[in-house]
Specification:
Shape: elongated
Structural class: alpha+beta
Oligomer: single chain
Number of strands: 14
Strand content: 15-25%
Strand order of the largest sheet: 13-12-11-8-14
Number of helices: 14
């Protein structure tokens, strides 16, 4: 009898312990606050939970005037995850702001719609809400055209802010609008900023090659894909190298971008980076080139670990030439090098050559002042 009572007591204890843990987990979820529902910048402070709740009836009236068909909760949650990389199930709030902004995209659970304010001073635009939601949840071609004509920046945001790569037509439209010569625009496109770090969007870079450049790759290292995007990448690589603390896995990101240069035949930029960052070569070898096959092929076959030293000889008729700090004729003179002295070539920058002297002093000389040693 005592044994039976002990078993019953033990089962009861386990039940209440599990039930208590379930309630604790549930309460934990209830107190899990969405990251962007409160916006504060300077004197501007917005609580979107309160703001949207006060507008919810008017929002519904505005979109209903266009006979909008609301998606199921399953479809709503699926598309929010797909387009905005946001997990709705993590939060119990009726309102979920999808990015930190004064005028963000806002998911409203009771209505299963995305709300966007066209202008705080204007009435709610039912036409905008209808077309935006028709495109996101039903991939409406008609609404896509309407957005391209009337609110194209919202389409661009889906790609640049949220990193959406699912819709080829959307990517084609956005890539056509991006200035691939602009370091700022490329930075915004190929990196996601979260938790105070920049994360490289490797899939976005793959899509740029596939869609913007029809999947072109150099057939050999002597060929070059002359496209603006790939000539901007060296600037991005230098930025990562200088500000590594700002980037997630900076070395891996640099290797991936160098691999894109190798695939495009822009090997001079690879040489320049490796020559100026000699320690990076060891990192690549130690990490097996971070599984970047084309970069590994170029470095091991063409660049090689035992790269041959290239020498030039000063031939200036004045009896010496100036070694300058930067590649221009007004730059500071570091040293004067006698005619006949040999210099080791590090890299070429237009009409200027970065060299190293016998004293291990680095600087630039004009290419007309030196000749290759035979």
């Amino acid at each position: 009898m005592k044994r039976q009572q002990l078993i019953i007591a033990l089962i009861t204890s386990i039940f209440f312990a599990c039930n208590s843990q379930t309630n604790d987990n549930k309460n934990m979820k209830n107190t899990n606050q969405p990251p962007y529902n409160k916006f504060s910048e300077g004197e501007v402070n917005i609580d979107f939970d309160t703001t949207i709740e006060s507008k919810r009836k008017d929002i519904k009236i505005a979109i209903d005037s266009f006979a909008y068909k609301y998606p199921s909760t399953k479809l709503f949650d699926q598309k929010i995850s797909e387009y905005y990389n946001f997990n709705m199930s993590n939060y119990d709030n009726n309102v979920l702001v999808l990015q930190p902004s004064l005028m963000p995209e806002i998911a409203i659970k009771p209505l299963n719609i995305i709300y966007i304010e066209s202008d705080g001073m204007l009435p709610i635009s039912g036409e905008l809400l209808y077309n935006y939601n028709q495109y996101v949840f039903y991939n409406s071609e008609k609404s896509f055209v309407w957005l391209k004509d009337n609110n194209s920046f919202l389409l661009k945001e889906l790609v640049t802010t949220y990193g959406n790569t699912h819709d080829k037509d959307l990517l084609q439209f956005v890539f056509h609008k991006v200035d691939f010569n602009s370091k700022i625009e490329i930075q915004e496109l190929i990196f996601q900023y979260k938790d105070s770090k920049y994360f490289l969007r490797t899939e976005m870079i793959n899509k740029i090659r596939a869609i913007a450049y029809n999947g072109k790759e150099a057939s050999s290292f002597s060929d070059v894909i002359n496209e603006d995007f790939y000539y901007t990448l060296p600037k991005i690589i230098d930025k990562i190298s200088i500000n590594q603390a700002l980037y997630n896995t900076p070395e891996k990101s640099i290797a991936f971008l160098l691999n894109e240069l190798a695939k495009s035949g822009i090997t001079g930029s690879i040489d320049s980076y490796l020559n100026n960052n000699s320690n990076f070569l060891k990192i690549l070898v130690d990490q097996n080139y971070f599984d970047n096959a084309k970069l590994k092929e170029y470095v091991t076959v063409i660049y090689t670990l035992e790269k041959k030293t290239v020498l030039v000889q000063v031939i200036d008729k004045d009896g010496y030439t100036n070694l300058r700090k930067s590649p221009n004729s007004k730059s500071e003179i570091i040293q004067q090098i006698k005619t006949g002295d040999n210099l080791e070539v590090i890299t070429t920058d237009g009409d200027w050559i970065l060299v190293k002297t016998n004293e291990n002093q680095k600087g630039y000389v004009h290419k007309t002042k030196v000749a290759d040693l035979k």
